[in-house]
Each structure stands twice: as structure tokens, then as C-alpha cells.
Design goal:
The complex is a heterotrimer.
Chain A (H helix, E strand, L loop, with lengths): L3 E10 L41 H13 L3 E2 L2 E2 L2 E4 L9 E4 L6 E8 L1 H4 L5 E12 L3 E5 L4 E5 L6 E7 L6 H17 L12 E9 L5 E6 L2 H20 L8 E5 L4 E5 L10 E2 L6 E2 L2 H11 L4 H10 L5 H8 L2 H17 L6 H15 L10 H12 L5 H13 L8 H7 L10 H13 L1 H8 L7 H12 L5 H14 L5
Parallel strand pairs in A: 12-13
Antiparallel strand pairs in A: 1-10, 1-11, 2-6, 3-16, 4-5, 4-15, 6-7, 7-10, 8-9, 11-12, 13-14
Helix pairs in contact in A: 3-4, 6-7, 8-10, 9-11, 13-15, 13-16, 15-16
Chain B lengths: L29 E12 L23 E11 L17 H8 L5 E6 L5 H6 L3 E4 L19 E6 L2 H11 L29 E6 L9 H16 L3 E7 L6 H16 L21 H9 L2 H14 L4 H22 L19 E5 L8 H4 L4 H5 L6 H6 L3 E5 L5 E6 L4 H13 L1
Helix pairs in contact in B: 5-7, 5-8
Chain C lengths: L23 E2 L6 H9 L20 H11 L7 H18 L9 H4 L19 H10 L22 E2 L2 E4 L10
Antiparallel strand pairs in C: 2-3
The chains are: A alpha+beta, B alpha+beta, C mainly alpha.
Organism (chain A): Brettanomyces naardenensis (Yeast)
EC number (chain A): 6.3.5.-
Pfam families (chain A): GatB_N, GatB_Yqey
Chain lengths: 490, 425, 178
């Protein structure tokens, strides 16, 4: 068994109105924009153009540093990373190698909020500001490459973790957590799928060198790539080899493959940028005020849902993924629990309501099932007028037939003949007896041959007979009691 | 401003060598001047998709364009440069020559390590290099951004002052533009109340290999200054001057190597249109497009920035530059606006004075035989001051000779005022 | 030898710092004799920078090829050009190697505040919360820098392009992307 160590390098496009070192429009993920239409003189490195830092990028980077519990540096500087590539207009990227904006952070992954088996602390090495490059599109037919500089000079934050991950689930949880933090603080436009967030992974086993995996587009691909790479490295070592040099590999969906090795590696000749002034921050003033201006952290929001609303992590995650749905739930709870004293509507919302949405191929919106109607519906469930089964059917109906929502719900239930079997239970007894009479063979199996499993068949028959107006639980009970008394007819 | 010519001779520019108007040249080296014309879109708001045209626009469009004509010199295929011709200096040699030849009243150039002062000296004109950051570099092709300074050449000091006043403005677009509150402006009496003007003479500029002609002139000048009742002369020592040449050339080649990385032909400019499997087009473009001197310098710069040279050369040079800045600062009486807590030496001097060049400008034919390193040595008097970003003016004193009047960082107007006083006497 | 402060000039007034490299201001030169004395002493010659003891690192063909690569230049030079370049580089490197011998003591490092003439050292331009926000609010795109959308056509500056795209003719090799 080889020990696994993983580190992440995540590049995030910042949601600023304008770009990093010039004020051309920052139009990150929109691929429908005309190529080379959102570029300033500096973005295409016209001789004589000069960079000027956009202060909004500083604010975003600071928010990210807060989210990662980093130490922000009062003074940070810019460096140039030199290499030639068609999408790099200056022949170098302006980044922060030596004096970045923040260092030494920590993220705690927990059972409680991240669903891990065990808590794990992940160290954050550095958070730095840097430029994005243009986009290159290789044209197969004539072997040339088209270049679009709309993306050039868009602000990025690069976040490097320490190699503190020892399990793939931690990686998955971290990426999710990081993405949620970015969205919560409104720092980033999107997700991995859009390319707004790009993750590179460093994998190494035991004491061997790390292998860098680049350009992996989705979280599940990352998980698969790490799994593959771990296996591959183990195989190398088990066959007597060793991994002594840093190597960069890509992922093709099935396996990792070498992109470049140490011999091909480029000397980036990092040089302090001679033109750009240092960022100087009055930390004592900026940090407390910035923290105060931020919304509640993701974990605090989750804690509130867990504690105050008694929710399980799985449901918390569903709500946290959709702010509108969360609002809706909170309002529903207010109405149903706080005002009417009914039980927590979470399951009805998360299982049944969302289930109906999927089946009806609809997107969530509050108008589909307004709070008032929903709460009226829940009252009927609570007081037994409507069984769970019929409730589901009714909900589906109401969602797809909006005009029936105007009808008082008890009337509707009556008119559909959905009213539960209730009262003294006489009707239920009748139904059970009828079913028993009509299914003598099965009954014999149960009573004489002790085939208890066939009970479910009888329960199902009763439900059908009742038109779903009884609870399965109640049916079982009544059936059991009737079967006790049953004697075969001669 | 010959960023692609580079070097301090202006002999290897794109259109041919620039000659020094002070020296005899019997034969015209140009066979003809070709008139070239282009049409540029007028400066109005409707500028989308309007290109610069090289043939006349059609009748409908012609009103939207300005016609611009210029003369392009065509060199004779076998011209000879007179044996007595000397170099004009560089790299703003063209600027200095046009002023010296009375073609213009003033010219703008850039001074990175002496490229305004040296040609001004060689053409016996006034060449002013302000404090670093006072005149915006927006629009200037960058050579070494931490050193590039826009300067002014003219025969008349009042013209220089006028032009400087107009250009001495904070520009938000230039990240190195000096903040308004750090610009020391024209004070009414720099030299009031009979206070003597103290002039420092760095002993490190007393070079063994100073040309004898220059030495003589220098002595004469100093004797004049010594006799003047308003002036007191002091020897000063600024030890770091001795290695400012290697410091300068390390930094300037490194920065140039970085700044010229953008020239790959893809987005603008010359494009080679050739490539092979092993040589991508940009390498051919750059190898054909850059002159030999440029290629040498940027390759050297790459070395200084590479893992081989970064700590030993580049970082070392950076620290030594800082030390030089401190040393200069400590001899001045005035306060350095960027190091406020540290400065204002009340026993300090108001100005530093030194020759601009070590010797007369080389004879052109001899210059072609000089190695690059040998030619660097000509910059010994100007580079230390460039590294410290101090305001300086070359004041001509004899044919192709001059001296520099240097003030504390930020005290540009003081330098200009004193230059006027000195020129009068 | 040539890095020391010469002892020949009389100092009666010395402004000293604690380090080896000390800048000083000497006694006023008031008489013609004092001036003559000053002018007669020369402290060094630039030719000293050229002494030929090749102690530093030498560039061989392999290193030169590597440097040409990094500089974005062709490596396919003929033999003559190659040796010319290599010699020139070695000469220049020799010249720059001077810097090795100079030591900067640790105590001096913290006084080296300004490595360039940009305002890094002072508290001016330090951003507090209010200033940061007001700068964010006041930044506007500048037409004269091409920052306003739809005001200029970048493609018009190059002769070769593929409709709205710039082109790289030989295609790009993904492995070389940083």
C-alpha cells in the first residue's frame, strides 16, 4: 500500500467588470462574443501601451484570501513569467511569484459540512493575482492556429494548496467547497465546466516526485484521473522503478499521458516587473471592514440550516446549491412550522416537490407552487385527510394545472375522491376483509406456510382497493390483525 | 529614440547611419529621398474598422482621412563616410543631429543610459534628461522600463524649459508616472539670501583614461567655477560609480530581453512568413527583424534572468543599484521625494558636475572596429546618473564636449535654473 | 584594489555610514593648488573593467542554443556567426561578472529600500478600505487606450489574419504551454 499525496493548483477567473491591467471589458465565459472585440491596446501588447492595475481585482483577491483563511500581505508585488506562445501577447505573463497577495491559509474539511468520513485540514500555500491568456483554436485542416485575445488579461486568482490531501474524496469535497465560497462571495462567474475555474493536480506516492496533471475539465474527470495516476505510479514502483523527476501529464478521458518532462521544461526567468508599483494595503483598516461587508460564510449558513432547521447535510447541500430554492424553503418553514406548528416540510420539498419538477421537466420557480398553496396542502397531509401516496399525485397535478390551485384544496380532494379513509376504521376493515376473501391462496401461504413476504402483495391490493386513500402503515396493521383472526373456510 | 538600433553610435539604424553635423562630410550618402504617403483615419468618433491606407481612399471616404507624407531616405549602395567624420552618439542620435543642423528648434528623445546626453554632448547641444517618471512614457516603445526617461534636446535653454513645463504632467496611464505631490515645482528663489551653491565633484569620475582634450577643458571649467563667488566646490566620493557600468548593462539587457519578447509578428509589425518543423515562425521573424546588436543584448539579458544568472547577476545588480541610489542621495542637500525619511543632508551639495563623455566621439571607421564591450565604456559618465534617475542636463563646452549638471531627484527646475545661470557666465 | 576609497584626498568632514561602501563629502576645494591636486588624482580607468581573467561562467554551444531558444531566436547559425556570437556573449558576460566579487553585507540589505525609482517605500498610495472602494468606483475605460468596446479594430494592424482571428501559421504545440 503506497501513501498518496495530492496538491491542487486552482485558477479562477474573477468577476470584475473590467480586466486586470487594462480596463477593457471582462466578458469571461461568453463564447458568443466576436473574437478580438474586447481588447484594449495593452491586451494585444501594442508597443507603447502600459499596464495599470484594476483595483477591483484586489478586492476580489482579498475576499478569496478571507475565504481561505489566509494571511494577507501588506505589500505585494508583480513578477513576469517569460515564455513564447501564440496566446501570450507580451511574451510573458504578469503574475505574483515572490511576493503574492496572501499566504499560509487553512481550510478545514469536516464530517459535518463536507460529508467526509473524517475531518481533514488542508494548508493553503499561496493566493496570487495573474493575467489570463488568449484562446487558441487549432485548425486541423490547414495546421494553423487561430488566436482570440478577448480572454487575454482577464484577472485570475491562482490558489495553490499544500500537498495535504491523502484521499480522493477530500479533493472532491475541497473543490466543491472552494466553488461554493467563490459563488457566495460573488468573486467568480462560474464553474469548472465553463472554464471559469481550472484545476491542476499534483499527485505523488510515498517519497517520490510529484506528477502534475493539467487541463482536466470536470470534477469527476479529476477524480478518475487521480485514481488512474495513483494506480499507474504504484505499478511503476512495484515493478522496481522509481519516479525521480517532476513530469507534466494530461488526461484523455481514459489515461494520463506525458505532456512534458524535465528536459522539456521551460526556464521561466521570473523577473520582478520593473514598471508596476507594489500593492500597499493598510491591513488594519481594510481587512475588518471588508470582512464585515461580506455575507455570512457558507459554513455559517449551513450551520444555521443544520441547527435551527434541523436539516441533514444532504438536504443542506441541495438547498445551498440553489439560493432561490433556499429562500423558498425558509419562507415555507416560516409559514408551515412557525405559524401553523406543523412538521418540517423539508422532505416534501426536497423529495417530492423536486421530484415533480424533474418529472414535469420544469425549472424551479416560486410561482409553480406558491407558499400559501403548499402550506394548505401540508395541512391536509398532517391531519390525515390526504395520504402520502395521494398527496404525491395531487402535488403533481397541482403543479401542472395551475388553475386548480385556485380551488380550495379540501374541495379538490373530495372531488377527486382522494379523501383518506378514516374515522372509526370501519371502511378499512371492510377493505381488508374483502381482499382477504378474494386472495385465499395467498392468505394460506402467509398463515399456514408462514410466507410473511407475501404480505406486501396483500397490502398492495388493499391500497389499490382503497384508491390510495389509506396509509400503507395503517393497512399493514389492520391486515395483520384480520389475519390473526382468519380461519380457513371448509 | 532608436530602440531597435540600440547602442550609443546610431550607426546601425533601419534607414542607415546618422552622421554628426559638426564634422565634415563631403559626399551625400543618400542617393534620393522617396516621398511616401499614407492616409490615417481622422480623429473622430467613427473609427471602427478603419485601417491605415497605403493607397488613396475612394472619393466617398477621402474626407474621413488625413493625408500624411514623409520622405524616406534611400542610401547609396556604396557610399563613403569621410575619414574625419565622428559618430553622433546615441541612441537619440537623430534627435541631436536634427537640432545641431538647425532643422528643428527642439527634439524629443529617450535617455536610458545616456542616450540623450551623449549625442547632445557630441553635437554640442543642450540635452536635458528629467527625473525618472516626470514625463509620461505612454506611447514609447519600452527598452528598459525602469530606466527609460523622455528627454529634450535643443540649442536654447528657454525652449527646453518651455517644453518641459508642458510635458511635466502626471499621467495615470503610466504606472511609473511620478505622483503630483512628489513633483517639486518652480520655486521663486532657489538661490536666495546669498547662500552659496555647493557643487560636488565625484572623485570616481576622475578617470585615468579621460581624453587629454576633455581633461583640459574640464580643468578650465572647474577653475572658472572655483573662482565664482557664488559657488563652492567639494570633492565627493560615490564608490558605487565604479561598477555602475556592469550593473547598468545587466539590468538594461535583462529588461530589454523582456520587453522585446512581444515582437513575434503575429499582432503587428514585420512577419517573416517562413517557418520549419524545428523553427516556429516567430523565431525567424525575430532573427530577421532584429539587428545584430539587439540580438546580442537580448540574448545576454536572457542569461542574466535565467537560472544561471538570476541571483548572481540580476538580483545582485538590483541591490547594487539600490546602494548607488542611497549613495547619491546621501551627498545631496535637498530631500529625495521617494526616500523622505532618509534624506536632506544639511552638509550636502546642491549639484553634482562631471564631464558627459570620456573622450571625443570616435571616428566612424574606428567605431566599426570596436567591440560591444569597448563601446559600453563610453557610457561610464552617464549610466550612474541614469541608475539613480536624477535630473541632468548636458551643457556644451567646446566642440563635441560637454559637462553634466546633476541635481537631486525631483529638482528638475532647480537644475534648469542653475544651467541658465552657468550658461550666461 | 580599485574598489577602495583612496586615502589620498584629505578628509576633515566625513559623513559616514556603517558599511564598507561609504559615500563621503570632502573638504572644500578653495585654492588653485587644491584644485590642481584634486584633478591630478585619478582613481581608476574603465579599461580595468576589461581585464581578461576568465573566472566566471563560460557559455558553450549547448548553453547558447538554450539561450537562443529562450530568447525566441533561431539556432541555425552558420559556424562563423555562431562563434562570433558566442565570443561576443562571453566577452560581455566577462564584463558583467565583475558583480560577483562585490559583497553586500546583511546589515545593509534592509537599508536597500528603493531598487527602482518607483514609490514603493513610502506610505503614499497605501490603500485603506475607503480609498480602495473609491478607486474601484472611479476607474473608467479610456478611449485613448482602446479600452472602450467597438472603437477600434485590432486585426487591422496585421496583414495576415483569419477573419476576426490572428493566426499562428505552424500551429501551436500544447506541451509548450505553461
Amino acid at each position: 500500500m503506497h501513501t498518496l499525496k495530492i496538491g491542487l493548483e486552482i485558477h479562477t477567473q474573477l468577476k470584475t467588470a473590467r480586466k486586470l491591467f487594462s480596463l477593457s471589458h471582462n466578458n469571461t465565459s461568453n463564447l458568443l462574443t466576436k473574437p478580438n472585440s474586447q481588447v484594449s491596446f495593452f491586451d494585444v501588447s501594442l508597443p507603447g501601451s502600459q499596464p495599470r492595475l484594476n483595483p477591483q481585482a484586489i478586492v476580489c483577491a482579498l475576499k478569496c484570501a478571507i475565504g481561505m483563511n489566509c494571511r494577507v500581505n501588506a505589500v505585494s508585488k508583480f513578477d513576469r513569467k517569460h515564455y513564447f506562445y501564440g496566446d501570450q501577447p507580451l511574451g510573458y505573463q504578469i503574475t505574483q511569484r515572490y511576493h503574492a497577495i496572501a499566504n499560509d491559509g487553512k481550510v478545514l474539511l469536516t464530517k459535518r459540512y463536507d460529508g467526509l468520513a473524517e475531518d481533514r485540514s488542508i494548508g493553503i500555500e499561496q493566493i496570487q493575482l495573474e493575467q489570463d491568456t488568449g484562446r487558441s483554436l487549432y485548425k486541423l485542416d490547414n495546421g494553423t492556429t487561430d488566436i482570440d485575445f478577448n480572454r487575454s488579461n482577464i484577472p485570475l486568482v491562482e490558489m495553490v494548496t499544500r500537498p495535504d490531501f491523502n484521499d480522493i474524496e477530500q479533493v472532491r469535497a475541497f473543490i466543491k467547497k472552494y466553488t461554493k465560497m467563490l459563488q457566495n462571495y460573488d468573486i467568480c462567474t462560474g464553474e469548472l465546466e465553463t472554464g471559469a475555474i481550472r484545476v491542476d493536480v499534483n499527485v505523488n506516492i510515498d517519497q517520490f516526485q510529484r506528477i502534475e496533471l493539467k487541463n482536466i475539465p470536470t470534477t469527476s474527470a479529476i477524480v478518475n484521473a487521480i485514481r488512474y495516476e495513483y494506480k499507474r505510479q504504484c505499478q511503476v514502483v512495484d515493478n522496481g522503478g522509481s519516479i525521480d523527476e517532476v513530469e507534466t501529464r494530461g488526461w484523455d478521458g481514459k489515461k494520463t499521458y506525458r505532456l512534458r518532462s524535465k528536459e522539456d521544461s521551460i526556464d521561466y526567468r521570473y523577473m520582478p516587473d520593473p514598471e508596476l508599483p507594489a500593492i500597499k494595503l493598510d491591513l488594519e483598516d481594510v481587512m475588518p471592514k471588508l470582512k464585515q461587508s461580506l455575507p455570512m460564510s457558507v459554513e455559517d449558513k449551513m450551520e444555521r440550516l443544520i441547527k435551527q432547521y434541523g436539516l441533514k447535510l444532504r438536504d443542506v447541500n441541495i438547498l445551498m446549491n440553489d439560493p432561490e430554492l433556499l429562500e423558498y424553503y425558509l419562507d415555507l418553514y416560516e409559514e408551515v412550522v412557525t405559524k401553523k406548528g406543523l412538521s418540517n416540510p423539508i422532505n416534501w420539498l426536497v423529495h417530492d416537490f423536486l421530484g415533480c419538477l424533474t418529472k414535469s421537466e420544469k425549472e424551479f420557480s416560486r410561482d409553480l407552487f406558491p407558499i400559501r398553496e403548499f402550506s394548505g396542502f401540508l395541512e391536509l397531509i398532517e391531519d390525515g385527510t390526504l395520504t402520502k401516496q395521494n398527496g404525491k399525485l395531487l402535488m403533481m397535478h397541482l403543479m401542472n394545472n395551475k388553475k386548480d390551485q385556485a380551488v380550495p384544496i379540501r374541495e379538490l380532494v373530495e372531488s377527486f375522491g382522494m379523501k383518506s379513509v378514516g374515522g372509526d376504521g370501519e371502511e378499512l376493515r371492510e377493505i381488508c376483509r374483502k381482499v382477504i376473501r378474494e386472495n385465499e391462496a395467498i392468505v394460506r401461504d402467509i398463515v399456514e406456510k408462514k410466507k410473511r413476504g407475501k404480505m406486501n402483495y396483500l397490502v398492495g391490493m388493499c391500497m389499490r382497493e382503497s384508491g390510495g386513500r389509506v396509509d400503507a402503515g395503517a393497512v399493514k396493521k389492520e391486515l395483520a390483525s384480520e389475519l390473526e383472526k382468519w380461519r380457513p373456510l371448509e | 529614440m532608436d530602440e531597435f538600433g540600440m547602442g550609443n553610435s546610431t550607426l546601425n539604424s533601419h534607414f542607415g547611419p546618422t552622421l554628426n553635423p559638426l564634422y565634415q562630410q563631403n559626399e551625400d550618402i543618400v542617393s534620393e529621398y522617396k516621398q511616401e504617403t499614407f492616409w490615417a483615419p481622422k480623429a473622430d468618433s467613427d473609427l471602427i474598422n478603419r485601417d491605415i491606407l497605403h493607397s488613396i481612399p475612394n472619393a466617398k471616404e477621402i474626407d474621413k482621412y488625413d493625408e500624411i507624407r514623409y520622405l524616406k531616405p534611400i542610401l547609396k549602395s556604396d557610399y563613403t563616410i569621410d575619414s574625419q567624420m565622428r559618430i553622433v552618439g546615441g541612441s537619440s542620435g537623430g534627435a541631436a543631429a536634427s537640432v545641431a543642423a538647425d532643422l528643428v528648434d527642439f527634439a524629443i528623445g529617450t535617455d536610458t543610459g545616456g542616450s540623450i546626453r551623449l549625442p547632445a554632448c557630441y553635437t554640442s547641444t543642450l540635452g536635458f534628461k528629467p527625473s525618472y517618471g516626470r514625463i509620461s512614457r505612454w506611447g514609447l516603445i519600452s527598452y528598459a522600463q525602469s530606466l527609460d526617461t523622455v528627454g529634450i534636446i535643443s540649442k536654447k535653454l528657454d525652449i527646453i524649459e518651455k517644453v518641459f513645463k508642458m510635458l511635466d504632467v502626471y499621467d495615470y496611464g503610466d504606472p511609473t508616472s511620478l505622483a503630483e505631490n512628489k513633483r517639486v515645482r518652480d520655486e521663486d528663489n532657489w538661490f536666495a539670501d546669498g547662500r552659496k551653491v555647493r557643487i560636488g565633484l565625484p572623485i570616481e569620475f576622475q578617470l585615468e583614461n579621460m581624453g587629454s582634450g576633455i581633461k583640459q577643458r574640464w580643468m578650465q571649467l572647474l577653475e572658472k567655477l572655483r573662482q565664482n563667488k557664488l559657488i563652492e566646490l567639494y570633492p565627493v566620493s560615490i564608490p558605487s560609480i565604479k561598477y555602475s557600468l556592469p550593473v547598468y548593462y545587466t539590468l538594461v539587457t535583462s529588461e530589454a530581453s523582456s520587453n522585446l519578447s512581444r515582437f513575434d509578428g503575429i499582432r503587428y509589425g514585420f512577419r517573416a512568413d517562413k517557418y520549419t518543423d524545428t523553427e516556429p515562425e516567430y523565431t525567424v521573424t525575430r532573427s530577421e527583424g532584429f539587428g545584430e546588436e539587439v540580438k546580442r543584448r537580448i540574448t545576454l539579458g536572457t542569461f542574466s534572468l535565467s537560472s544561471y544568472g538570476f541571483d548572481s547577476h540580476f538580483m545582485k545588480a538590483t541591490k547594487l543599484r539600490s546602494r548607488l541610489i542611497n549613495e547619491f542621495n546621501s551627498v545631496f542637500r535637498d530631500r529625495h521625494e521617494l526616500i523622505p525619511e532618509e534624506s536632506g543632508n544639511d552638509k550636502g551639495v546642491d549639484f553634482i558636475v562631471c564631464p558627459t563623455s570620456v573622450d571625443k566621439p570616435s571616428i566612424v571607421s574606428e567605431y566599426y572596429n570596436t567591440s560591444p564591450v569597448q563601446s559600453y565604456l563610453n557610457d561610464v559618465m552617464t549610466t550612474p546618473i541614469s541608475l539613480a534617475g536624477l535630473p541632468t542636463i548636458n551643457i556644451p563646452y567646446g566642440k563635441s564636449e560637454g559637462f553634466q549638471l546633476v541635481g537631486q531627484f525631483g529638482y528638475d527646475y532647480k537644475v534648469l535654473k542653475f544651467a541658465a545661470m552657468v550658461s550666461e557666465s | 584594489m580599485i574598489w577602495e576609497v583612496p586615502r589620498i584626498v584629505p578628509w576633515s568632514l566625513i559623513i559616514a555610514k556603517r558599511y564598507a561602501s561609504t559615500s563621503v563629502i570632502g573638504k572644500q576645494i578653495s585654492t588653485p593648488e587644491e584644485l590642481r591636486e584634486f584633478l591630478s588624482k585619478s582613481s581608476w580607468s574603465t579599461q580595468d573593467l576589461l581585464n581578461l581573467d576568465r573566472t566566471g561562467m563560460k557559455i558553450d554551444k549547448k548553453l547558447m542554443d538554450g539561450l537562443l531558444d529562450l530568447t525566441g531566436l533561431r539556432k541555425s547559425l552558420n559556424d562563423e556567426d555562431q562563434s562570433k556570437l558566442m565570443n561576443s556573449l562571453n566577452d560581455q558576460l566577462q564584463f558583467l561578472d565583475r558583480l560577483h566579487s562585490i559583497d553586500i553585507p546583511k546589515e545593509e540589505e534592509k537599508d536597500l529600500k528603493l531598487t527602482r525609482l518607483v514609490d514603493d517605500a513610502s506610505e503614499d498610495g497605501m490603500l485603506d478600505f475607503h480609498k480602495l472602494n473609491s478607486e474601484v468606483d472611479s476607474t473608467k475605460p479610456d478611449f485613448l487606450k482602446g479600452e472602450v468596446e467597438d472603437t477600434w479594430n485590432p486585426i487591422s494592424l496585421t496583414k495576415e489574419h483569419d477573419e476576426d482571428y490572428y493566426i499562428v501559421k505552424e500551429g501551436l504545440i500544447k506541451k509548450n504551454k505553461a
